[in-house]
Amino acid sequence: MSNSNLLFAIDLGNRQIKTSDGENTMVIPTSLVRKADFQGYGDSKLKDFELYTINGESAYIGTDVKKFSTARSGLQTSTERYSNNQIFKFLAIASVAKYAKSHPASRKGNLRINLMAGLPSEDFRNNENVDNVRKIFKGAHEVIYSHDGVDEVIKFTIDNVNFVPQPYGSFLSSALKGIDVIESVGSEEDFARYDDYMDSKVAILDIGGGDLQIVYVEFGNFLVNQSVQLKMGSIELFNRIRNELNMNFNIRGDINIIESLVRKGIEDNTHRFIYPVNRRKEIDITEIVVKAIEEWSQSIIEEFQLAFRNTEALDFILVTGGGANLIDKDIVNTTFNKDYERTVFVENSELANVEGYIKRLQMLENEE
């Protein structure tokens, strides 16, 4: 690796793409609105709705794309996503360009990047998927960013593409918390925590948008062949709620709205969930949401217990991913903390993986 290259990490999630350079992080929905489908006229107050053009294809990305009925998702089965899904490919490169445009070197065409990409555990051990992702990223890229009637050309070259299984990022983020990997600086407490994690048997429950990943890290080593990947991510919870909404109120709920109201009700600690049918009509679906969370949480615990027949041998159980904030923590703690506390709800769990990737990339850089 070249020491002059920018170190950049990207987490290719089913519902969100997360990026980080170690100091700045971004979250982008795995959805876009094609320019051809956006036939609006007039002004809007959209805050994050940016137009990019890649290989002649123009589309908007950003958090506000989820507001539009014309939004298209990059969510598909893994192999198709990495080889044939043009939406996913566009989002992958546009996500790097969204960050790269803040660097003057990208306008001169000499911005060079070393990339660490996180893949779901099953995809990570599939050589075809790894090769397809490498092909998407590696090499020179030219992207047009359009804003305020001006087209700005962003150029960057990705020299190296490294890979890490997604949940391992949360392990590294937790183990290396407070430690500056580049300078090898941290408090005694931070280094003691690192040693503790590296000397333990750790299970990770990574609850993503589309997938649930259950993996095992033994003394710092990610045991790839012992990982389990299931279609039980937070999207299943939102679909359960939508089905109940349809059955009880004859309303076909919007998944993005359901996700937003569920997260809001949990984050503000009210645990009250109101579905906005439109700006004038609302429905209290608290009972539906509470029941759905309980049932979904219990099903995740059951899958975890199937994956680890001897849970007593585990020193830590890390709960991470965007869904870690949605699962019923009481159910998790009651199940696994009968004799002593060993469950850890990873801080900033939505970004913990990508923050771990950049630390892994920094570690590799130090080895050069």
Walk me through what this model shows.
The strands form three sheets. Strands 3-2-1-8-10-9-5-6-4-7 form a ten-stranded mixed sheet, with helices on both faces. Strands 11, 12, 13, 14, 17 and 18 form a six-stranded mixed sheet that branches. The protein is an alpha+beta fold and 368 residues long. Helix 6 packs across helix 12 (349-367) and helix 8 runs antiparallel to helix 10 (286-307). Strand 1 (6-12) and strand 2 form a beta hairpin. The protein folds into two domains: 6-166 and 355-367, Nucleotidyltransferase, domain 5, CATH 3.30.420.40; 178-346, ATPase, nucleotide binding domain (Nucleotidyltransferase, domain 5), CATH 3.30.420. It contains twelve helices and 18 strands.
Q: What layout of secondary structure does this protein have?
A:
Elements: E1 6-12, E2 16-20, E3 25-29, E4 31-34, E5 50-54, E6 57-61, E7 72-73, H1 78-83, H2 86-100, H3 104-108, E8 111-119, H4 121-124, H5 127-137, E9 139-147, E10 150-165, H6 166-175, H7 188-198, E11 201-207, E12 212-218, E13 221-222, E14 228-230, H8 234-249, H9 255-267, E15 274-276, E16 282-284, H10 286-307, E17 316-320, H11 329-336, E18 343-345, H12 349-367
Parallel strand pairs: 1-8, 8-10, 11-17, 17-18
Antiparallel strand pairs: 1-2, 2-3, 4-6, 4-7, 5-6, 5-9, 9-10, 11-12, 12-13, 12-14, 15-16
Helix pairs in contact: 6-12, 8-10
Keywords:
Nucleotidyltransferase, domain 5; 368 residues; 18 strands; alpha+beta; 2 domains; 27% strand; 10-stranded mixed sheet; single chain; 6-stranded mixed sheet
Could you give a short description of this structure?
With 368 residues, this protein is α+β, with helices and mostly antiparallel strands.
